[in-house]
Amino acid sequence: MEKTLRGVGVSHGVAIGQVRHMGTAVLEPPATQIPTEDAPREQARAQAAVEAVAADLIARGNLAGGEAQAVLEAQALMAQDPELMADVSRRIAVGSSAERGVYDAFAAYRALLASAGEYLAGRVADLDDVRNRIVARLLGVPMPGVPDSDEPYVLFARDLAPADTALLDPTLVLGFVTEEGGPTSHSAILARAMGVPAVVALPGAADVAEGTVVAVDGSSGDVLVEPSTEKQEELRRIAAERKAALAASSGPGATSDGHRMPLLANVGGPGDLPAALEAGAEGVGLFRTEFLFLDDSAKAPTEEKQVEAYRKVLEAFPEGRVVVRVLDAGADKPLDFLTPADEPNPALGVRGLRTLLEHPEVLRTQLRALATAAEGLPVHLEVMAPMVADRKDAKDFAEACREAGLSAKFGAMVEIPSAALRARSILQEVEFLSLGTNDLAQYAFAADRQVGALARLQDPWQPALLDLIAFAAEAAQAEGKSCGVCGEAASDPLLAVVLTGLGVTSLSMGAASIPYVRTALGKYTLAQCRRAAEAARAADSAEEARAAAQQVLSGE
């Protein structure tokens, strides 16, 4: 019998197929005691399994490239954490087997993460995946992962670890649905990068029986269980019409009456460039440079290595705009040589620009590398600082840019509510703003972006978040400067229309979303965008804001 489940749509498109569930988690190994003389052998087994899993994660990252590579390399570092491995060794020395020592040590570390504030609690799923892979190798059982199938299917899971999401085969995995996760979780971001329809935070996903036919709408968040033949045909027709409209869409982003809205790509490194160019990106609105620093968390990459990586991205957009975010370390992206290991709440501690100002040599090297990489290129390089809180932060960053001889424009990311509220003050020191809506929502609502139960508060349609965006855009307009959006909010076509109406001056997103946003913008005038934005801000909830904007744009 047909029924509809409602989750959070995080990646556009429609998928129709049979359900296949993710393989079950590794069972808890028995708590058997081993003789003391066997401890060295068990310690060696544990170390070998850890190294094998870390190597496998790095290999998967190299295959996937881009966003996925950075996420998987971070997981590999998690597997090899020296303190964690020391705890494993201690447990084995007092009688645990290798697999039990790993299981218990990870359980203790898991409890620490879960109690260290909501931001770090979001890393628990990644930690569980690493543990399961190590224990599976030690037990000699198959690795947890996506099911084997010769036929295309829709993947259902409690949650998807980055290692699984990164290498999903889009020719077999038509789409995926998770019970946990949020709109800005790692899996959601990677799904958008792949162009695979996805719905997260769907209550009851685990209860949908294996083999059930479902239709997943990654735009609306609806999952239809056992849809009728007529409904399936209707959905396929709608999907075909969307695809045809996207194929006909090309050129710069603009409203129907010619108001320009540059559509830029978010990239994690050179591996993301082909998709951005194919989608018609007009430049890069967010170049996340963390991927380069995750290769070796014990030390920063050399200036020469940075120059090489940056130049590849800059060369891909001759005479285009490339906005580079300097290293955003801390919180869920710890680096051994930079970030403290004992912060009680890293999300509210020393991260982003705060970290760089405490280690000026790292910032100085990165800025010099960017200046060198841009030499002789016609590209419009812009460099921005993450986690700017106030005018002093902006001033300190601007001075560092000047001291490094950087001739590019320099700006500030608006991810902290104080920066949105005092945007005009910050703009006295920098030349542009870029709104990171993922973190801005997280800090505005005290809601971890990785926790599925808080997805309602991470919804970028929340009117309070729209207010903060409007404050920043109005301040930039008053100062005659630009204010873009580089958070995942820009990838929602309807919300992109509203953001345009709020006064932002560019939109940056995963490459797969660019055609959808370009098509949506081309349907409406700037005046319609502004009316939709006003209606959305006047609402009291995300659902009401979305409905109000749709009503205005449909002419009802």
TrEMBL record:
Enzyme Commission code: 2.7.3.9
Domain Phosphotransferase system enzyme I N-terminal: residue ranges: 6-123
Domain PEP-utilising enzyme C-terminal span(s) in chain numbering: 252-522
Record carries keyword Metal-binding: yes
One Gene Ontology MF term: phosphoenolpyruvate-protein phosphotransferase activity
Subcellular location: Cytoplasm
The protein's required cofactors: Mg(2+)
Known catalytic reactions: L-histidyl-[protein] + phosphoenolpyruvate = N(pros)-phospho-L-histidyl-[protein] + pyruvate
Pfam families, A to Z: PEP-utilisers_N, PEP-utilizers, PEP-utilizers_C
Domain of life: Bacteria
Keywords of this entry: Cytoplasm, Kinase, Magnesium, Metal-binding, Phosphotransferase system, Sugar transport, Transferase, Transport
Primary location class: cytoplasm
Domain PEP-utilising enzyme mobile: residue ranges: 151-221
Family membership: Belongs to the PEP-utilizing enzyme family.
Role this protein plays: General (non sugar-specific) component of the phosphoenolpyruvate-dependent sugar phosphotransferase system (sugar PTS). This major carbohydrate active-transport system catalyzes the phosphorylation of incoming sugar substrates concomitantly with their translocation across the cell membrane. Enzyme I transfers the phosphoryl group from phosphoenolpyruvate (PEP) to the phosphoryl carrier protein (HPr).
Protein name: Phosphoenolpyruvate-protein phosphotransferase
